[in-house]
Amino acid sequence: MTSPRRRFQTFDDPSHRKGPERIAALRAAMREAGVDAFVVPRADEHQSEYVPANAERLAWLTGFTGSAGTAVVLADKAALVVDGRYTLQAPEQVDTDVVTVVPLAETTPDAWIGEHLGADKVLGYDPWLHTADGVARLERAAAKAGASLAPVANLVDAVWAGRPRQPAGRVVLQPIEHAGETAEAKLDRIREKLATAKVDALVISDPHNLAWAFNLRGSDVAHTPLALGYAIVPCEGRPGLFLSSTDLAPEARAGLSALADLNPRISFEDALAALGGRPSKIRLDAGTAGAALKEGIVAAGGSADVGPDPITGMKAVKNAVEIDGSRAAHKRDGIAVTRFLAWLQREGCNGVGEIEAVEALEDFRAESGLLREVSFPTISGSGPNGAIVHYRVTTATDRRAGPGELFLIDSGAQYADGTTDITRTVAIGTPSAEMRDRFTRVLQGHIAIARAVFPKGTTGAQIDAFARRPLWEAGLEFDHGTGHGVGAFLSVHEGPQRIAKTGTVALEPGMILSNEPGYYRAGAYGIRIENLILVEERTIEGAERPMLGFETLTLVPIDRSLIVFELLSQAETAWLDVYHDRVRTTLGPDLDPDTRAWLEDATRPIGEAGA
């Protein structure tokens, strides 16, 4: 008898809600360290969104498990600042008698500090967990309050009993048949960028960039194949690679040793100080380099040039091999998700549970034999839970979908040839007229992005409103970005590209993004429709400048029972019919007869009789 497959997700409730004990312990450590306040960001030393267990300081301290947020703890009060994705989740997880949840739309952590810290107080922070720009903001906030700023060793670590160890997972190479470019060629391109910027070396502080530059993949972080560590890439000479893990596969050790000097992570600070002591002008990534790196370079006599890591933009533009891999991954994933949706429709009348749905979807994906991981914990929300944008089901919150409810499931997979991310909202039974209206408006916004054609140089911020207009026309809105960048067997959230009000980076051919407008009625239901899209060149007769558009990569049907067809324009109807025809013809031959028959019905043209 074979043992059951290990699942990539658990459903334990990580929120402790133990009241003031942990905040009290932190305050005792603050008094001992001589500080009156301490900042606890949701970050590790690489400023990553997805962090290892030993860096989940914010969750341990407050109970809040979201992927973004900042706590500020004073002697007599504490605040947790969260963005619009978490304004419903955070109050459910934290003890609001001890920690006040503050929406980011109302105030920033810096503004809250400036208002509440008080004169002559000392604000403590861990310089590894804040960028140089972040520290500058803290300095301004402290100055506004008439207070001062002090770097200290992390005070949460000092009181966290049983803190997990630093991960040291297996490190392997990403083969050329998936990477599409050798690490040697990438390093040569990186050096060209450094020469243009007139810097002597680059410190790679982002593990995603580390993975891309050296064609390596690790297992130090859940759901994202990262090896934690740093690299120093000089304009001339061999790079130095400083990995937290010593568990390198033999071929990885041989391949990386041919590229760089391999060193343990513990020796990184000494190597950085030696580089700074030459002296040298060293580029630090403004987004991921902790302020401690700048302080170390300056103390050694070097010059810290804080700016963009050129790898971030290079990594965002996928090469032809990565694009073909993504298409293959999305076809494979589309088969699994389509099989799941057919199952969900069959079982929906019996009241499918949220955990049951997560497990079923993961099993369908695993049947390909190529699933490496899920790309993030599946958001499986029925009824009112679907209105929590980043809801994570636990055994305590699991509920079964009832008739007339919506079921929102946002999920993704990691395959060696690509990363996927898809959201579908489906009706269990007969949806209300309001649900159908809202779903149709979200669909119209989704189609507007998918059909967008725009001149080269256009940013995500310039097209974000396309997705919102149908909702705005009804006085509605959603409080998250329309789209984020996606990696190639890397992070499901990858910059610098995004479709959002804050998306200031120009979109380029080869970038992959999500297209995911939504609508959320608190306490009732949530709606989101998400496909991944590829930026591509577009030829338009008579165009006076280069134009771009999108190829939709995700291949999964959209629930027709939720669409008010009369609201769709002729162009929107045509797009949906063409998309569904592509889904049907691409996936159909690889499906079993029952699922193929379900797909045929689910993708019928809108104008067909009985639609």
TrEMBL record:
Family matches, as Pfam families: Creatinase_N, Creatinase_N_2, Peptidase_M24, Peptidase_M24_C
Domain Peptidase M24: 327-537
A GO term from the CC aspect: cytoplasm
Keyword set, alphabetical order: Aminopeptidase, Hydrolase, Metal-binding, Protease
All copies of domain Creatinase N-terminal, residue ranges: 22-158
GO molecular function terms noted in the UniProt entry: metal ion binding; metalloaminopeptidase activity
Record carries keyword Metal-binding: yes
Residue ranges constituting the Peptidase M24 C-terminal domain according to the UniProt record: 546-606
UniProt protein name: Aminopeptidase
Signal peptide boundaries: none
Stated family: Belongs to the peptidase M24B family.
Domain of life: Bacteria
